[in-house]
Specification:
Layout lengths: L3 H12 L3 H4 L2 H26 L7 H17 L4 H23 L4 H21 L1 H4 L5 E2 L10 H27 L2 H11 L1 H6 L4 H27 L1 E2 L1 H4 L3 H13 L4 H21 L4 H15 L7 H12 L1
Antiparallel strand pairs: 1-2
Helix pairs in contact: 1-8, 3-8, 3-11, 3-13, 3-14, 4-5, 4-6, 4-11, 4-13, 5-11, 8-11, 9-11, 13-14, 14-15
């Protein structure tokens, strides 16, 4: 049976679908980024929140999806085929890579996962004939975008929103499945989980794969949306760091918290960027650190804190 928080989360995200009929092109742009950030944060929460492994591979999955889908689109392929290709490549690659990398723990795994993006970035830079190398890759308008900026903005917002809905439903299912239970056992005590019959290698590899498949699809949609990508853009280290910050900001281990953290992070990022362009990165980092210090359990803990405060006053 679906929990109250999960129902509220899905209902709130469903309401976002009305944005193309209510918002401007700018609002649709923000909505698309909000959905993309939420996909990345919710996906990271599978490996980082449920199993407790601090993965920095989100940027690698995003870049892989951007280039895998972007290359197919540049060759005349359709957007659906590009999404399926990028998702399949990310899932299969993460399963194989996870079986090796997830034998490491703690900061060793974190550094190794971060290195994956650098390897893929170099491959994209050197594969000039396929990816365009450092010159970047031009991507034609995806079929279905419509004519005019508003129609195109609406199309890509709805596509990213649909991907977020699929991601949420999948991750909520994982949390309540045998896989989710096994991942929580691994987070609490991996040695004990092995003793009770949990195949830790398989479970962690599956979590790693699910943390990458939807991020790769988001990368494909991003590439089709902006029409031009380059290695420095889609393999940016910030794509590895931001999802972690969003999950911590919302509440580590909580799917609702990951979505809330992604939306809050985008709001902070956009506000700081518009008002302090020259030092926006420093101010953004400072604001996030302050929020994490005063809300160590994330934004999802605000309601509980208010209830506790009210109970003390009574």
């Amino acid at each position: 049976m679906i929990r109250r928080r999960e129902a509220l989360l899905l209902g709130a995200v469903l309401l976002l679908a009305a944005l193309p009929w209510l918002g401007s092109t700018y609002a649709l742009r923000l909505g698309t980024f909000a959905c993309m950030y939420a996909v990345m944060a919710v996906s990271w929460n599978v490996i980082g929140g449920l199993s407790g492994y601090p993965s920095f591979a989100t940027g690698a999955f995003f870049g892989l999806g951007a280039y895998a889908g972007g290359v197919l689109l540049s060759k005349g392929g359709g957007l659906v085929a590009a999404l399926l290709l990028s998702g399949t490549m990310a899932f299969a690659g993460a399963m194989l890579l996870g079986a090796v990398l997830l034998r490491l723990r703690g900061h060793y795994f974190a550094v190794a996962s971060l290195a994956v993006a650098e390897v893929l970035r170099e491959l994209a830079n050197t594969s000039t004939d396929l990816t365009g190398g450092g010159m970047g890759l031009n991507i034609p308008l995806a079929t279905g975008g419509g004519s005019g900026p508003q129609a195109e903005a609406s199309f890509f917002f709805l596509a990213m929103w649909a991907l977020l809905m699929v991601t949420l439903v999948t991750v909520l299912w994982i949390e309540r499945s045998k896989l989710g239970f096994g991942l929580q056992c691994i987070r609490q005590n991996e040695s004990a989980a092995d003793m009770i019959g949990v195949n830790a290698t398989l479970y962690k590899s599956a979590a790693f794969a699910f943390s990458g498949v939807f991020v790769a699809m988001a990368g494909t949609l991003y590439a089709a949306w902006v029409h031009y990508i380059e290695p420095a853009d889609v393999f940016d280290v910030l794509f590895a760091v931001k999802p972690i910050v969003m999950a911590l900001l919302g509440g580590l281990g909580s799917t609702a918290g990951a979505v809330l953290g992604a939306f809050a992070f985008l709001a902070i990022e956009e506000t700081v960027w518009r008002n302090s362009l020259s030092i926006h990165t420093g101010l953004l980092g400072l604001l996030v650190v302050v929020l994490l210090l005063f809300l160590p359990q994330g934004l999802v803990s605000v309601g509980k804190r208010l209830r506790d405060l009210g109970a003390r006053r009574v």
